Fold Glutamate racemase.
Amino acid sequence: MNLAAQPIGVFDSGIGGLSVLQALQAELPHERFVYLADSGNAPYGDARGDAFVCARTHAITRYLREQHHIKALVVACNTATAAAIHEVRSSQPDLPLVGLEPALKPAVALSQTGRIGVIGTRSTLSSGKFSRLLASLAGQAEFVVQPCDGLARAIEHSTALPLATDPSATETRALCARYISAMGQFGTEPGEIDTLVLGCTHYVFVVDDLRALVGPQVRLIETGEPVARQTRRLLHKDALLAPEDAAAQIPTPIRLLTTGALAPLQAAAARWLQLPPDCCGTVAIP
């Protein structure tokens, strides 16, 4: 088997990781991808405990290796990264592995006021991994951390619906407004939050709503592009970058799978990746 020609696995609890897949496609246009949304159990971050998330992460990793022979895995989920990536690294030492964490370090480098907002799921923001990340940056900035209960779930559910004609009437818009309001003043004046870290991959899909709430001068930082660059670095180091004609040799260089209903994934694929319905399929992973 030519390992370099094998696909990269990408997984998330739902459709949020498609934002990371977008960045991976842009950075690695010659690669093949298998994306798995565990939508039958989504979202992880609002109500799932660490033991459940670890079990699902292990099961999905085994499935992607055994059935799709992936050469690397991107865990495109902050909650799964925080709960399980250290265990996956121990159990799969030969698998190049890239996880996500809220982009606090880039935010510190960019912020001028030294006051940074962080939004994410409760599971991610209460994890030991996130606490250690915060502690490592003590004294470098002030962080306003806001759990956004229900927001990832609302974004997930909205995928199957037609685009709203009045975004202010949607549940996602209402939740965004509630949580942004709770964080305090945004802006570029001293004491204001001038940088907002999107600590969940789902939130990229409501970036227009968030931008309208915080104003045009506030920086919004997500993790897709840094993760894509890190994936390229790992593949290059292990001589696993695909040849330039690899993706063109098969009819479907991107395969999207879900453990939940098929229609929402097809709608998300069409809306955000301009992919046809036949790129998508369902799978059962015990």
User: Anything to note?
Assistant: Residues 164-169 have pLDDT under 50 and may be disordered. Residues 104-221 form a domain with the Rossmann fold fold (CATH 3.40.50.1860).
